[in-house]
Structure formats: C-alpha cells, structure tokens
Amino acid sequence: MIGLLLLLFLFPLGFTLYNSIHDDGQFTLKGYRALVSSTLLLRVVSTTFQISIIASLVSLLLGYPIALHLSRQSPRKRAFYLMLVLLPFWTSILVKSFAFTVILGEHGIINSALVWSFGPDATIPMLFNRVGVIVGMVNYLLPFMVFPILASLLAQNPAIAQAAEIMGAGRLRILLSVTIPLTMPGAVAGLLMTLTLSLGMYITPALLGGRRDMMIANLIDFYTRQTLDWNLASTIAVLLLALSTGLAMLLFRVRQAEGSF
Amino acid sequence: MPRLKARQDHLRISSFFAWLGYFFLVVPSLVVIPISFSTSSEIAVFPHRLSLHLYREFFHSSNWWPTTVQSFRVATLATVLALIVATPAAYALVRYEVRGKRLIHLVFLSPLFTPVVVIGLGSYLYFAYLGIGGTTLVLVFAHAVMISPFVLIAIMAGLRHIDPTLETAAMLMGASRWMIFGRVVLPQIVPALAAGALLGFLVSFDEVVIAYFVTSPVSQTLPVKMYSAIQWEISPVIAAVSTLLTASSLVISLAISLLQKPAWKAND
Prior knowledge:
Shape of chain B: globular
Mean pLDDT of chain B: 88
CATH class of chain B: Mainly Alpha
Distance between the termini of chain B: 40 Å
Number of domains of chain A: 1
Low-confidence stretches of chain A: none
Oligomer: heterodimer
CATH architecture of chain B: Orthogonal Bundle
Distance between the termini of chain A: 25 Å
Structural class of chain A: mainly alpha
Number of helices of chain B: 12
Mean pLDDT of chain A: 91
Order of helices and strands of chain A: HEEHHHHHHHHHHHH
Helix content of chain B: over 70%
Helix content of chain A: over 70%
Radius of gyration of chain B: 23 Å
Largest interface: A-B, 70 and 77 residues
CATH superfamily of chain B: MetI-like
Largest sheet of chain A: 2 strands, antiparallel
C-alpha cells in the first residue's frame, strides 16, 4: 500500500530527471552544460554554499551552549527549557520570517531603538541582505543542532567525567578535554543535518534576503515561473537532490557509527 | 580559591550564552502577539489600545478565511491518506524480518531528506503532464508523500512498545492475520496513531513551498496566501494569522508530547 504512495513520490522525481535531459521531447544535455558554464548559476551555487556553511557554523556556536545547559538540568527543569526550543521548532517558518521583518526592518524594533538612543543616522541595514538571511536561517536551524548534541551529551557515561575529576582535572578541563570531544559525533550529525536543510532553503532567502542572496531553491522557482525553462529548472533540482542525498548518506554513516540508527 | 572561581566563571559564561540562545529562539514566535491586538492599519509593536479588529478582519475577509478552510481540507485528507498507507508499513517493518529491511526503511524515510523544492517542482511538472495540475488532489498527494515519514516514525515507536505475545496468543486461538491486526494491534496503538496524525496534520498545514508550486489561485492554502502577503502587502492581519498559527502549533505539539508520554515511561 505504501508502494502506491512511493510511486507518487518516485514518479515526479523520475519525471524531473527525465526533464533534465529532455527539452520539448528532444534529448539534450544543454541543462548540464549550463550547470558548468552559466555565471548566474555558478554565482547562486557559491552563494548557497557560503550562506549554508556560515549559518550551520553559527548554529553550532549558539546551539552547543544550549545543549550543554539542557544536559545539566534536572529532568523536570529540562522539560521546561526544552519547551523553549520546541516552541520555535513548531512555529511556522512564515510566522518567524514575518517576525524578523518586524524586528530587523528599516523601521523595525532594533533600528527604532538605535535611532531613539543614538539619533536618526544610527540605523543598521539588517533586512533584505545577507545578515537577514543568516539570522533567519540560524533561528530555523538551531533546534536541529541542539537535539543531536543534547542526545550525545546525555548518552555520556558520567563515570568518565568522575574519573577525570578524581585524577584532579578541573571542571573547565573536564569540559574541554572529556565532554566536548565525546560529543563530536553529535556535533557532526548536527552540522550535516543543518547543512542539508540549508542547501534547500527557499522561504528565508526569499523573504529576508536581497537580490544577491538568491539560493538554489529560489533559482529553481525563477526558472520554473519566470522564464518557463523547465529543462534548466529540472537540471538544477537534480543537482540539489544529489547534494542533499550525499549529505544525508554521510549523516546516516555518522549515526550508524554511533549506533543510534 | 582561584580554581573554584574559574569554574564558576565558565559555568556562568556558558549559561549566559544558553540564555541568549533561548531568547533568540523564542522572541520571533512571541513578538507577533502584541502586534496582533493593535487597532491601526499599521504595524505597531506596542499598540496604545488593544482590540480584536485584526482578528475580525481575518475571519470575515474573503481572501483569508477560504484559504484557511482549504488548508484544513488538504491537511485532513493528506493525513488520512498517510495513515492508511503508513500503518501497515510500520507494522511490517517492526514485526517481520524481510530481506533488505534497512534499505526499505531508508526508502520510506527518503521524502524526509528530499528538499521540499524538489518535491514541489517534480509534483508540479508530473501532474501538469498528467493533466490534473493545479487541483487540490495534487497537493493532497504531494503532502501525503511528504508527511508519511513522520507518521511512519510515530507509529513504529508505538508498535515497539506493545507486547508481541498478545498477537501470538490471538494467532494460537485461531484469529486471522487481519483480525489480529484490526482487533489486537490497532486498539493498542491508538495513542501512537493519534500522535502521528497530529504531527502529519501540523506539518501539512504549515507547509508552504510545495503548496506554492502546485496550487493555482483557486486552490491556494493559508501558508501560500501568507507568503505572498508578507512579500507584497505587509498588512497587520498577518500578525493575527501568525498568533493563531503559533497558538495552534503550541496546542498540537503539547498534545503530541502528552500522547507519546506513556511510550517514554515504558522505556525507563
């Protein structure tokens, strides 16, 4: 029965693959040639990678202290703090994007506060540029970073840290040379997860970014709706699918090595 | 005691960053609430007078309410479809040993790792080719595909916590496979089915990219309407819609965690 549903999934994907090598029913490789020769495409792909890598790293820097804080709470308190991570996780990305236009905009909360305290020239452009995209994406990605790190923090055998303490290591030393190295698989899983999600991001760059922050997903939409070039749109979709499948495979490897899948 | 001081310092620093993180996570979901109660037609974060004006506009206007009904319809149908296909699959994956089980499991979960824009484009092109492009049915199909992994995971978690000896007992007493499934297995996993259904409903109801690709102006859903409203008109009604969406996500996610609690307890 689920086979039926899979057909509804695999046929559209197969049709996209077919469209990437056919134009008007004729076999062609011009889409794939454009992939390596079109300057617009190369620029968008490199923008996508830049934004994705920065957003994933910022998520790691901000997500790690959250996971650490959560792991140190009693189960009851942890349940409360987890709600703070889960509420935005369940909030629609449109709600969050709208909120960020209100917070970061030219007449938004932050800029109004700046003008109020430092005078009319003290505004910082934070919307419709790279800053807006990164802020919006990190906000979306953070829970996906916190959960795997928290899982590996909670899975740690407390006896290891105790052993280090008995042998005279301070708390900071234990954190830096025992706890953090042991959470590497969780951090790597979080990074791969956030990277996979960022590469396919559509809403955040469309609503919070400017013209120069167009990402792969927006380009697919551009070719589908604006220029009606289905061949090129499909080719880019195949590229995106290949990238995220590759990253997902790596993620499964990491999880498998850890024994949690 | 210099060491003790250092220890407290680093604890304080990491807690400070954690609090910064919580603040950053929660503020966007909360900032829309005061805006939604403003009176004016302009966006004001701290309204001088509170009113339900924007909510009235949402419920009575002809461009917001019909899209909400459409989202309800799509999410309900997609969830029913996903439940019908995912329940037997979950049962087979948990109870039977088949060759290539890991691979099958991976294939079932693959929509989770496929960028939504790719599912959107594929569904748009393929169903247009079949001649049913732009209809509600296409969106129901695409959403059922997208939410099926969530439903599958929730049901499998429920199945892992029921005792298989009950099924063996029913079999020994002569019950057929279908009877075992319908009268022994299903009644035991009602909480997991409900959790999976709520999860699927919420994901479908909030989904915007696939819906943006495959719907036409007549089959538009609430998220698609909201997306174009944020892009083009920035009307404060969006704040009221946002508040309602956040409130319902909160209620649904609380319900899901309550439904899954018994399963966690059994694990301890």
